[in-house]
Amino acid sequence: MPFAESEPDSVDGGDGGGGGPGSPEPSADGRRPAASSAPLLAVCAGYFMVILDVTIINVAVPVVGRDLSASLTGIQWITDGYTLVFAGLLMTGGALGDRFGNRRVFCAGVVVFTLASAACAFAPSASFLVGARLVEGLGAALIVPGSLALLQEAYPAPAARSRAFGLWGSMAGIAASAGPLLGGLLVSTVGWRWVFLINLPVGVVCLALTLRYVAPSPRHADRSLDWPAQCAVLAAVALLTASLNEAGRRGWSDPAVLAGLGLTVVAAAAFVLRERLARCPALPPRLLRRRAMSGAAAAGLLFNFGFYGMVFTASLDFQHQRGLSALETGLALFPAVAVTMFASVLSGRLSRRTGDRPLVVTGMLLGAAGLAGWAAAGSEPAYPLLVAPMMAAGFGTSFALTGATATVMGAAPPAYAGAASALFNTARQIGSATGVALGGSLLASSADYATGVRVSMAIGAVAYLLAAVIAWRCVPEKAGRTRKADRADVRSR
User: Fold this and answer.
1) Whether the Cβ atoms of residue 216 and residue 85 lie closer than 8 Å to each other
2) Do 425 and 453 belong together in one domain?
3) What was the pLDDT predicted at 26?
4) In angstroms, rounded to a whole number, what is the distance separating the alpha carbons of residues 371 and 390?
5) Across all residues in the chain, what is the average pLDDT?
6) Assigned domain for 193 exists
7) 131: confidence class by pLDDT, cuts 50, 70, 90
8) Residue range(s) defining the domain that contains residue 256
9) Which of 184, 176, 137 is nearest to 51 (CA)?
10) Which of 185, 196, 213, 413 is deepest in the core (most CB within 10 A)?
11) Which CATH number characterizes residue 116's domain?
12) What pLDDT, on the 0 to 100 scale, is given for residue 173?
């Protein structure tokens, strides 16, 4: 199918039939009532649950290993298995949402994730827990791509959509940074199994709210899933994530790491070749050639690299160098979290007047200033000197995420909303994995720990600056005008 023909919705019916409470009917004067906040709460609950499970397990792993007599390899797979499946299947989750309806796939992901969390909580052995974590990753990959597409459907007005995207984005920073704090609290009080049991009520509430308040999504039954492309992107992301994780342990020159990175390039090339030849590609090349789409995705990769690299490096610094417990480390990182909600709300409100480009550029410059400030603070700076840099990085990342998200989703035709969301989140996951791996490698290879921390923060600052340059060149000032221009460009081709 030519790309120009896929731009209008080829709707084969909703994913559940009918309108649903998520799409209020216009009043007699033709105006729609104010959008309910229930769809936003439902989607953000699912997204929060997914991102929380990336970090909350870290402080529980030593206790889990002792309790289940897990080997070192088993402990690594408890943490890495979830991330590998999650990152590797995001594109598949987006394609399934576009084909079968984003609400249907989102709800299926919530069910899978919640049941897998229950299995993790009652795991009798380490191998059982690893298997349940892999299934959790599958549920996460079904939840995340549909979350952005559902928000775009539920909040068609640009101002409301920007606020929704901003709050959605803040969930990532809050969940990632709150994970160690909450995990430490649960492990030290009620036990490690509650790290997973906490997902059960959240999953039930998320599913109930979604079914009640989120309208059924259109299905595009003429869209094939293109399994060769899906397998290629799964292989590329899984190989890259595994290679980066191993680089932090083995070093960047290790033959296994180099072989993994080489195979990553091969898998990525196979994906690109398949997309050029496929009749109905998962991500049409013309869509990827749009500067708004590719530029915002690249910026997302870079600011996730900077932020999550900072969180990981700071966590190690606080625990290994400053002697803080897991709970105290979570409290020490709290300033980076506390500002994210405020930043997302502010950026959502400002986007109507400023457009997306100033928000993304400003956020990236703030993040760069924060990490540069940490790098310049000395070899062993006192904690009060680090509060402002952490707040600048957290605020800047959340402030920019709203505009980057709106840019990616605005550049995609409705029929490819799930695929666009998957592309953006896959790029961000790659950025997170790269930032964590590079931070660990620098700490392990530096002559002293303090030097490794400062170099890691300096590299993160450079990544933020590069993201600012890309955003200045690629992110449009007004998302609404870009959508119209993109549609005109598609028709002209």
Assistant:
1) no
2) yes
3) 42
4) 8
5) 79
6) yes
7) very high
8) 226-281
9) 176
10) 196
11) 1.20.1250.20
12) 66
Residue that the structure tokens 């394609």 belong to: 95
**Pair (290, 269) in one structural domain:** no
Q: Count other C-beta atoms under 10 Å from residue 8's C-beta.
A: 11
DSSP assignments along 406-423, one per residue = HHHHHHS-GGGHHHHHHH
Cα dihedral 172, 178, 184, 186 in deg (nearest 10)? -80
Question: What is the DSSP code string of 282-350?
Answer: SS-HHHHT-HHHHHHHHHHHHHHHHHHHHHHHHHHIIIIIS---HHHHHHHTHHHHHTHHHHHHHHHHH
pTM of the model: 0.75
Count how many domains the chain has: 3
* Lowest pLDDT segment from 110-114, 237-241, 347-351: 347-351
For residues 237 and 128, membership in a common domain is answered with no
Closest C-alpha among 140, 92, 89, 95 to residue 114: 140
Residue 474: what pLDDT?
86
Q: Are residues 72 and 108 in the same domain?
A: yes
Per-residue pLDDT reduced to its tens digit, 71-99 = 656 676 787 778 778 888 888 888 888 77
Q: Are residues 295 and 201 in the same domain?
A: no
On whether the CB atoms of residues 214 and 150 are closer than 8 A, the answer is: yes
Three state DSSP letters for 84-117: HHHHHCHHHHHHHHHHHCHHHHHHHHHHHHHHHH
Kindly list the distances between the CA atom of residue 271 and the CA atoms of 138, 174, 186, 206, in Å, as whole numbers in the listed order: 21, 33, 42, 34
